[in-house]
Specification:
Blueprint (H helix, E strand, L loop, with lengths): L1 E6 L3 H9 L8 E7 L2 H10 L4 E5 L7 H11 L4 E6 L4 H10 L3 E4 L5 H47 L13 H4 L7 E11 L8 H4 L1 H15 L2 H4 L4 E7 L3 E8 L5 H18 L2 E7 L3 E2 L7 H16 L18 H17 L2 H12 L8 H11 L9 H6 L9 H23 L7 H12 L7 H7 L4 H12 L3 H19 L4 H7 L5 H12 L3 H8 L1
Parallel strand pairs: 1-2, 1-3, 3-4, 4-5
Antiparallel strand pairs: 6-8, 6-9, 6-10, 7-8
Length: 533
């Protein structure tokens, strides 16, 4: 809603405009009424209105003088002059000043006053709409440019050779690439808010990263950086920024420490986060052109400098972080993916345990998060919606504690999902639900429909009909399916002989077991065991 402020030295006029005119009906918020031009200026300094209604004849500074002052200092504010009878000369002067309208304040009804203000507001709304569109367009362009920078820095540090020969984009580095000395301050942050706060800027880490970059660019101006020094800011991952500083002369260590502290304080003042900083070494370039390899090394050193904070809530520890080799990564990933594909709860928990029980030295968090994403690829494994939604939060895991909490919650969500799949829907009759649970708990026993029907107080024939209707398969088909599922697990996880598995799932006839197993899996027990091994 557009904000309106009025000025009149007569109390009864102020009360009339405040109380008798239905401003909200016209799309306005009435900010209040000032008794003098001085008071009005003070109110505008606190909150700028969209529309100013001012009387002409007021002591000290009249309405025309106020209009001229406001027009010069706040040119976007629209002005309507309130006149009395016989003040048409004032009205003429008001028009020359460029005011938007004038009203004979005692001659108009509240509806007429509101309508006059609405006509002024229509032009203002068109201007605001154009401004809003331009602002949104600039914002979209900034977001696209920021996304390009993120993709560029990620490719630069991938190590896949795709950046060979690609020059460092000078337009992003703001003259830093032509400096004689270059260094980097890597800033990172951890979110310290609780989910109940609902800060939307924190819900989108990329938006927060972009906002922090804009604020730091404004804060670390030329005066703050020092004579001749230049600054460029690049995004790293989701919760890091590289402050790239170029200088004509070598930058003193105390000045870099001061800049790092200012950057940390600025980040903390903007959002409820704990800021971290790593100050890189100063590199002398001389007259040589800065290469993408040098920039990639600087980025990696900055990220590695902050990595140790992952395992420490306080000061940066001196622990050396272990990097995972490709073979170990493949083995761990294969174990988890295999367990997920087979929906094997015990194997899954065992495979994932390695991710949250680290030895010494601990694993580099970059490797840890990368490995986590590889293990939970929706293209490779079936995941419940709740877990798929959690995948976007992997890059927000900035401490070992939050990482472990994330995994524990993810493990529980997946296992609960599997358990729910084993159970009949809640819409199924309670008697049939009970029969299904009993079968899964006693699949190795000699299960008879008549015995289970008796336990749920139903006639066997009626229980059989109801079971087929509710579950979609008859009693024996369901029992056999459960037994074959359990047999598959035993063949995968144990060294039991096939005949031992047959007996363990309640089928004493070995030949019948093999025939039944093939009908459910498409392969014989021997082929299945060989394939899984």
């Amino acid at each position: 809603m557009l904000k309106i402020l009025m000025v009149d030295d007569e109390k009864w006029v102020r009360e009339r405009f405040a109380q008798r005119i239905p401003w909200s009906d016209g799309g306005f918020t009435f900010m209040g009424a000032a008794s003098s031009a001085k008071e009005a200026i003070s109110m505008i300094e606190r909150e700028v209105p969209h529309l100013l209604l001012t009387d002409i004849t007021m002591p000290n500074m009249n309405g025309l003088e106020l209009a001229a002052y406001v027009r010069k200092r706040w040119p976007r504010v629209r002005i309507v002059i309130l006149t009395a009878y016989g003040e048409f000369e004032y009205a003429r002067q008001a028009i020359e000043l460029g005011v938007d309208n004038y009203l004979i304040k005692l001659a108009q009804t509240p509806e007429q006053i509101l309508e006059a203000c609405r006509k002024v507001a229509e032009d203002l709304e068109q201007e605001l709409d154009i401004d809003h569109k331009l602002e949104m367009q600039l914002k979209l362009e900034r977001e696209k440019e920021w996304a390009k920078k993120r993709q560029w820095t990620e490719r630069l540090t991938d190590g896949d050779g795709s950046m060979q020969g690609l020059p460092v984009p000078g337009e992003w580095l703001a003259g830093v690439e032509s400096a004689s000395y270059v260094t980097g301050i890597t800033i990172g942050w951890r979110v310290t808010w609780s989910s109940g706060q609902g800060d939307t800027s924190l819900e989108d880490p990329l938006q927060l990263q972009s906002q922090l970059a804009e604020i730091l660019e404004a804060k670390l101006d030329a005066q703050m950086l020092g004579d001749g020094n230049r600054l460029a800011i690049l995004p790293l991952q989701h919760t890091h920024l590289l402050l790239l500083i170029g200088a004509k002369r070598e930058i003193p260590a105390f000045h870099l420490s001061q800049l790092a502290r200012i950057a940390q304080d600025t980040v903390h003042a903007f959002a409820p986060v704990k800021s971290l900083a790593h100050i890189g070494s100063v590199e002398e370039l001389g007259k040589l052109r800065w290469t993408e390899k040098q920039l990639a090394n600087l980025i990696r050193k900055g990220r590695d400098g902050l990595a140790a904070y992952f395992y420490s809530e306080g000061e940066k520890p001196s622990t050396v972080l272990r990097r995972l080799d490709a073979q170990q990564s493949r083995e761990w990933t294969a174990a988890v993916v295999k367990a997920l594909q087979r929906e094997n709860v015990e194997a899954f928990r065992e495979a994932v345990t390695v991710m949250i029980t680290l030895g010494a030295p601990p694993i580099h968090p970059g490797d840890l998060l990368r490995l986590t994403r590889q293990m939970l690829q929706p293209e490779l494994v079936r995941l419940p919606d709740a877990v798929a939604a959690r995948l976007s939060g992997i890059d927000r895991l900035t401490t070992w504690n939050t990482y472990c909490e994330w995994w524990l919650a993810t493990i529980d969500a997946i296992c609960e999902w599997w358990n729910q799949q084993d159970q009949p829907p809640v819409t199924v009759r309670k008697e049939i639900q009970w029969m299904c649970r009993y079968i899964r708990e006693h699949y190795q026993a000699d299960l008879q429909l008549a015995e289970l029907a008796k336990l749920v107080h139903m006639h066997p024939s009626y229980a059989g009909q109801m079971f087929k209707q509710e579950i979609g398969e008859n009693f024996l088909e369901y029992v056999n399916r459960v037994r074959m599922e359990k047999a598959s697990e035993m063949l995968e996880r144990t060294t039991m002989k096939i005949y031992e598995v047959s007996g363990a799932v309640g089928i004493s006839d070995y030949r019948y077991f093999c025939k039944l197993f093939k009908s459910h899996t498409g392969v014989t027990p021997t082929q299945y065991k060989s394939k899984m091994g």
